[in-house]
Structure formats: C-alpha cells, structure tokens
C-alpha cells in the first residue's frame, strides 16, 4: 500500500499536470487569436507575403467559391493576384466573433470567425462585405499556422445602395490563376441565404 506521503505526491503531480495542460490551452488560444488577427491586419495593407507566411507549408485557401489553392506558395500566388494596396485603396478586413476548439496535445485546432470588410478604390467603387471563415490550424515547427482558410462570403453590397437593394454577385475566378481543386461547396451570396458549415455541433 502506498504511504500517505506517496499519495500526496501523486495527487500533487496530477494537479501540476492538469494545471500545465490548462496553461498550454490558454497559450494556444491566445496564439490562435493573434494568428488570425494578424492575417486580417496583413490583408488590410496588401502585405501578401506576410499573410501567406501565416499558412502551413501544405496549407490551403478557399475564398468566395473560387476553388481551393493548395500549399503556401499557391496561397501566396493567389494573394499576389489581388490588386495592390496603393493610393486610394481600402481593404479593411476585421476578424471578429471567434469560436475556437483546440486539441493542444495533437497540435490542431478549428475556428469559426466573422470578417467585416470595407473594400474600395477612390473614384471607382466602394463596398461593404461580410463573410464567415471556417478555418483549421496546426502547430508547425512550434508555431501555430493556418492549415486551411475557407471564406464563405455572406454578402457584398455597394456602400451607397445598401443591402436592401440587393447584393453584388460573387466573382468566381481570379484572372490569370486557376485553382488546384474545385470549390468544396456551391453557393451564392446575399440575397440568397448562406449558412457556412459549422465545425462544431455545440460549445
């Protein structure tokens, strides 16, 4: 039979292990918040290389039903095909309302986000947009990276007309760049109803 001291030590070790696991989970949550927020800030300013570097080496990107781009360098190519950030350009890209589920031991996570967008070019067009991100993440070389980013556009509308006058149809392709895989879901944005698939059933 173990002694009282041995039982006490065993209980203390178990408690330390539980506390270490909780501390790791808290650190992972913070790191994932920072990772996704950093992506939004880089997109804000057209810093495409910095945004691409947040992806895992085999990470994927799928936005607006344009197909899936596979691998960090293909993500980089996609981003570099977007218009540059320059005089008269607005790309505000806010990352909001996270629901994150983390498996710290496995080094994997999934997160759902809402992004609110203000996009426009001086004297040409200005639009409001909103999308749901259903993303996955993995720890790569000790750092969290985006394993898959899937942006499902809920609406785009002209800033001066508003959504009550309808929405802008999705642009289904990027000029000069074909995806590696077809879109994983087929949908149209507002005024059609859009429900992005959930990675969770309950929280």
From TrEMBL:
<dbReference type="InterPro" id="IPR037401">
    <property type="entry name" value="SnoaL-like"/>
</dbReference>
<keyword id="KW-0175">Coiled coil</keyword>
<dbReference type="InterPro" id="IPR032710">
    <property type="entry name" value="NTF2-like_dom_sf"/>
</dbReference>
<protein>
    <submittedName>
        <fullName>Nuclear transport factor 2 family protein</fullName>
    </submittedName>
</protein>
<dbReference type="Pfam" id="PF13577">
    <property type="entry name" value="SnoaL_4"/>
</dbReference>
<feature type="domain" description="SnoaL-like">
    <location>
        <begin position="25"/>
        <end position="149"/>
    </location>
</feature>
<feature type="coiled-coil region">
    <location>
        <begin position="9"/>
        <end position="36"/>
    </location>
</feature>
């Amino acid at each position: 039979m173990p002694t009282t001291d041995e039982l006490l030590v065993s209980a203390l070790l178990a408690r330390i292990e539980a506390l270490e696991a909780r501390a790791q989970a808290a650190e992972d949550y913070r790191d994932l918040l920072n990772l996704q927020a950093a992506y939004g800030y880089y997109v804000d300013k057209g810093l495409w290389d910095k945004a691409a570097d947040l992806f895992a080496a085999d990470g994927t990107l799928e936005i607006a039903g344009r197909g899936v781009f596979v691998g960090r360098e293909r993500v980089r190519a996609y981003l570099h095909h977007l218009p540059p950030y320059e005089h008269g350009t607005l790309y505000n890209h806010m990352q909001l309302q996270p629901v994150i589920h983390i498996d710290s031991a496995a080094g994997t996570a999934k997160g759902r986000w809402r992004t609110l967008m203000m996009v426009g070019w001086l004297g040409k067009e200005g639009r409001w947009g909103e999308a749901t991100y259903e993303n996955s993440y993995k720890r790569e070389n000790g750092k969290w990276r985006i394993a898959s980013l899937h942006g499902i556009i809920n609406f785009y509308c002209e800033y001066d007309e508003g959504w009550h006058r309808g929405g802008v149809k999705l642009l289904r392709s990027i000029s000069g760049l074909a995806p590696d895989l077809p879109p994983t879901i087929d949908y149209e944005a507002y005024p059609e109803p859009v429900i992005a698939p959930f990675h969770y059933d309950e929280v």
